[in-house]
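<goal> How does this chain fold?
<sample>
Here is the protein in question

***
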Amino acid sequence: MFIFASMLACNSIERRCWVLPCSDRWFQIVETAFTDKEWYDNFRVSKATFQFIVSEIEAETVRKNTAMHKAVSPSKRTA
């Protein structure tokens, strides 16, 4: 048991950053600036169908913000 615990201690990696910061700017642009054809080319469904799907599964995909990070919106999770 002691040998296994020392092996774990020796293999630990110092991490400075657990998550790389990312921007949701792309999705904000997509929601406002994409034409219907661009939307269909990227998501393979029409915007109306996408919004219907999100409304149907929103209750199951909604998350709460925590002290560690902001929750991802249901529409972004679906996309």
Observations:
- The chain has a mean pLDDT of 80.
- The CA atoms of residues 16 and 68 lie 15 Å apart.
- The helical segments are 2-10, 25-33, 36-43, 47-61, 74-78.
